[in-house]
Design brief:
This protein is mainly α. Helix content is 44%, strand content 0%. The protein folds into two domains: 43 residues, no CATH class; 71 residues. The chain has four helices and no strands. 3% of the residues are buried.
């Protein structure tokens, strides 16, 4: 079996505790989080985030929930920008607006959508 290097930010990226109550802070929380992210005993496919996003987007397209031209790579790129938020006045409202913008764009023109 080939060796694999897994890198992750178990304490989060640039986030702070006030942005999420789930951010591990104490050594015990970090230890428990590390155990959770390295437990591959129940792992199956998908094998990476691109594959995960492709499955999600294709399922949403098939269910008629998003536009037929929704591209998983485009959605993943758009969502990666949300990771760049930092704590500043109004960041939560901005995050909500951007998520709504992305979701509304994905639903645009879909028959059972609330969008035109």
């Amino acid at each position: 079996m080939a060796k694999v290097i897994i890198s992750c930010a178990i304490t989060g990226g640039i986030h702070t505790p006030s942005m999420s109550p789930y951010l591990p802070i104490t050594p015990e929380q970090i230890k428990n989080n590390w155990k959770a992210v390295t437990d591959f005993s129940k792992s199956t496919h998908p094998t990476n985030i691109n594959e995960s996003m492709a499955r999600l987007v294709h399922a949403a397209v098939e269910a008629g929930l998003v536009r037929t031209d929704a591209d998983p790579e485009d959605v993943l790129q758009a969502m990666s920008g949300f990771c760049m938020f930092n704590e500043h006045a109004g960041w939560q409202e901005q995050a909500h607006r951007l998520v709504n913008l992305l979701v509304d764009g994905l639903r645009f023109g879909v028959a059972n959508s609330t969008n035109p």
